[in-house]
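On clarity, I found the account of how folds are encoded harder to follow than it need be. Since the whole study asks how a given chain folds, the encoding of that fold should be made plain. For illustration, here is how one protein appears when written out as sequence plus structure tokens:

:::
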Amino acid sequence: MGSNRLAAPSKKGTRCWPAVLVALLAGLVGCDSSDVAVDDQTSLCGPCGDVYAGDTFISGDPRLDGLFRAVGSFGKAAAAIDASFRADVEALADAFGVEHSEDTGIDILAAQVGTAIDLDISTSTSGGLEVVFVEPECEASVNVAVEAQANCEAKAGCEVSAECEGGELAVSCEGTCSGGCSGGCTGGCKVEASGTCEGKCEGSCSLDVAATCEGVCKGECSGECSVYVENASGEMECDGKCEGECTGTCELAAAAECSGECHGKCEIEVEGECEGECHGSCDAECSGGCEGTATPPSCSAEGSCEASADCQASASAQASAELSCTPPRLDIRFEFDASLDAAARAEFTARMAELKVRMVGIIQGMFKMRALIDADYAAEIGIEPPIAQITGQVQGMVNANFDDFDIPAGRLVCVLPAFEDSVDIMVEAGTSLTGTLQAQIDIVGVLDIM
């Protein structure tokens, strides 16, 4: 495949590890302090866990294992985006007649496919594409943060309170809570709607009386409409952007005021209790998603656990590494060039359908990749980029006093390779994934939406 795949690199040389760690590793085998032969280590301790696989038991200390889990989650998330992007670009290459092989670099292939799409649009349409686009929303995983915090503290021997068991406790959200709020919500409160909306409508708006439409107008347009289609009665009606006023249905591109009936969600401004989905700041605990840093509360009794702070850090890192992004809204409309016959129109329409499907996946992956490795975009959504957050924690653990960790002697031999894998994963991410992100941005450029 292409050069940007995230694969497990081979071990090369020796890193400069703290002398205390090297000393601890020297001659220590077995699951206790007894003198056990190296050949007997596996039968006594089990095999060393694999960071790449996201194994949860490597060192035996929950704080370190939580960090290794975060690294593995980050690596798997990035690799999945990378692989999905490759598959989508190859599908577009097949649709638009671009020859390729598994050895073609993804950056080269993306550029070639982008050129082919541009050429097809310019020769098959009159005036290019009209694109209605709403960005994905990326959120840290609240459930992951809570579960990771509770598990870490429990394994560290903390006095875990009953309400923390099972990972049901919500987290504080340092940003925008998009879910349930156990206290006061300040900002938007979204509720399911099928009627009048006193705030902003997210979905479609039925317009019995002519009004402006911030999206796609389906019906009558008093001014110029970008696309007309034939309805069931054989009459031409608007099915695109209306430069005048729309009567019929307005499919909103984003949340906006609706002078008719709203179908979807209605967002109203609140300062207090929200009986629907809070989409603002929450002064208590947030459940659902967090557009910002998801910080799980300590599950241990106050002052009972020295590991709590480290557990909290690794839990927050895991939540950021396993963030999720909603699919974007993407509508592609066009007018055929007058020279195209019926067969050519059908073929172009099929290619545009494939373009839409594949671009939804590419854009969703691009935004998630940006959240993982792009510091500027991560700051926009209120999180520290996981690549920086996790790299900093790895370095902090490497430089830590290992006497502070509870690592069985037989698992110490697993710790150094796990740190080597962790560093390799994060270094690889900083190089090859940057190239993937740029290739994503380049091919999305054919839609002229960014």
User: Anything to note?
Assistant: Residues 19-129+350-447 form one domain. Confidence is low (pLDDT under 50) at residues 1-44. The first strand starts at residue 125 and ends at 134.
